[in-house]
Every structure is written in structure tokens, then in C-alpha cells.
Amino acid sequence: MVKRGLTLFLVIPLLIGIIFSSSDALTGLSIVQAKDNSNSGQWIGAWSASPMAPHDGGISNEGFDSQTIRMIVHPNASGKQISLRFSNTFGTEPLTFHKVTVADTEEGAKMKPDTNKTLTFDQEQSVTIPPGEEIHSDPIPYQVTDGEDLTVSVNVSSETGPATWHWFSYQTTYISKEGDYTESNDEEAFSETVNSWFWLSGVDVKTESNKKSRVIVALGDSITDGYMSTVNANHRWTDFLNERLDEEISNQTFSVLNQGITGNRILADSPIFGEKALSRLDRDVFSQTGVTDVILYEGINDVGHQPHVFDADKIIFGMKEIASKAHDRGLRIYAATLTPFNAFTDDSNYYTDEGEATRQEVNKWIRNNDVFDGFFDFDKAIVDPSSPDKILPEYDSGDHLHPNDRGLEKLADSIDLSMFEKPLNRGKAFVN
């Protein structure tokens, strides 16, 4: 296979069956609940990725033509039915899928035998998504297992134009030569690979029982996105947190959704690093099916990226705005302290003494605030006690900003799970 090259701008630290426009996400409803006629189980989000605008060059700008794109996703919840969400949010032309299938993953581009199912959209196999909109597939019976990878294959029969995507997936995506290979297990048909997802923005499942569910959305930047973690290992801190919750709390169904974007900021948009956190709340957080909680872990790029934000009050104001919007929708929200970044190797201008002072001031506020429902001290979890502006070497990926797999697991281990032990009653945050 040929690895498709991406131009990396390494100034990086960090319901169902209907079409709705991005403006519809601004209705104030924090959850989009799927519908069916069964009284058992609940629809919840099992996997998600934040849609991003295509870059000016490279594969997202080029798009695809009469090819099959095979993506691997790692659900964090089990269920007996499934529905997938696809996004043409940043497309400028209608996007037509000829066929979409879902299967259990065997290895690489291969699917487990007899598991591949064709999805429909309003009972049709083919679907066209208008620019700026998203669509859910019709729900189908399908056994999804928490932690067991799914293979999603999308065939387009014509040119797509620039594609809405998620830049860094840390999961291999397989791109075929010309043709419909949605039902094929011929790995040789998939001649290219990338580490990005295209159009796929969510997987919802209907749980087996009526046990109360907890859907936790992690809103973050590259450390949440899993930057520098092992590809295909699912070692993001959100994956480790989901495993802990499943193992240690048995009275609820948990799902942790990852809405991290590498390089993302709270206060400023970027054509490379996505819309700012304040602008993507409705789409990326409040529209997630069954959302109950939010973990905010952002702000370091506001400090490090140019133009630098050395005013801690501005970053704190942005955090307060996010907390207020979450509370307005009946959600619980937690903040995580900003982790060290001295000597970041990919950008010599990223670390400054003024930036470190800003980080410390923001962290002091997080540790003593009465705005969030709690906080997680990620800084304390991986900081080098002898050099409090640096990551402890055993948790450092090598670039002095992003934790390695052990460091990401340490972040998850530092979270106080007692905050999630008591089930939540469904209130105004839920619609049925």
C-alpha cells in the first residue's frame, strides 16, 4: 500500500433517517434522541469525530472519484441497533453516496465474514447530502460491542469535490482504486492509506437494557485527539477513561465521545485547526445523542499559537462561556488543567515565559473556580515535579508537549470517577 502524504503544519500542540442543516443544531436541544417503536434500551452516542473543513491542498481538497473509502472506528458503547451520521458540513456541493456498509473489523481492511450490512437512508441505498448538512442512516438491527472495531465503507460513484473530514484519526483509513468495494474483502483493492476520517461524524447505538446511560463528551485539542499516540491502538485518554468507567462503575452504561481537534483553540478559528471551541459547541457537543456530561480540556493553543493570548482573563472568559452554555442545556461540565509545554520541539515560538505564566494563572483559576461542576488536574498528573513547566520524561512523547501512551493513560487514571457514580435523572437536557 502507498501511504498518502499529508502536508503537516506542525505548529501543532495540540433522529434517525432525516437530514438536518447546521443551523438546525442551534435549536437549543442538547440531545438528538433516535426513535423507534421499542420500549427497551436507549439511543446513545457510541463514537464520534469532529468535522473539519478541507485544507487548501492535499487529499481533503482533492476529494474522491468513483472510489470506496473504508474507515475503522472504535465504539465506546454496546448496542443492538446502529445508526451512522455523515457530515457534508463544510462541503460546497451536494455529496452523493452510492452505497454505505458497516461490518465487524477482522484486521486491517478485512471485515469479519457474514457481518457486512448495507445501510439505508429513508429506505434508499443511495443518498445525497446537501452542502452544509448532515444525515443519519436508518436504524438497523446490528450487534455492536464496546471496544470492538467497526468497518464503515462508503462508495462514491462520481467526483465528491473537497471533503469534510477529521484530519488526524490515528486510525488507518483505506482508499480503493476505482469501483465499489463496499462488500469486498480484497485488501489489494485498497491501494492507499491515510490517517484521517472522511464525512463520518458519529455512530449511535441502541443499548440492550434500560440501565441509565452516561454519555461524556470530551471537548479538546490535540492531546484529546490523540496526537502522538500509537496508530490503531486506541490509546487516547478518552479510550482509557471509557475502559475505567466500564470496569469500575456497574450501575450505568457509559460512553466517552472524543471531540478533540488537533491545534484547536477556545477563542480563535483556524483554516487548519478548525472552528474554535466556542463556535462548535452546538454541532460537536450538544447534538451528541444522549449527552449528559462534558469535559473541557482546551486553552493551551490559545497561549502557544500565534498570535499568543497572554491574558488569562480572556481564556477564563471563554471557559466560563462554554460552562454557561452547557449548564443552560442541563449538562454537567468539568474542566481539566492545562499541561506543561516547555521546549516543544515542533515550534520554537510556541513556549514563552509569558505563556507559562498565563498557563499557571489559568490553572490556578480552574483549581479554585465555582463555575464548573468539578475539575481534573491533568497538569499535576504528568508534570515533572523538579521542572514544573515540563512533562515528566516517562510520560513525554518526545516533543515535550504531547503525552505518550503512558501519559495519556495517566491522564485518564487521574480522573476522580466518584463524580460519575450517581446516575443522572433525565431532565431538560433530553428530548424523546
Automatic annotation (TrEMBL):
InterPro entries: GDSL_Rv0518-like, SGNH_hydro, SGNH_hydro_sf. Pfam families: Lipase_GDSL_2. Signal peptide: none annotated. It comes from the Bacteria. Residues 218-407 form the SGNH hydrolase-type esterase domain. CDD domains: XynE_like. This is Lysophospholipase L1-like esterase. It comes from Aquibacillus albus.
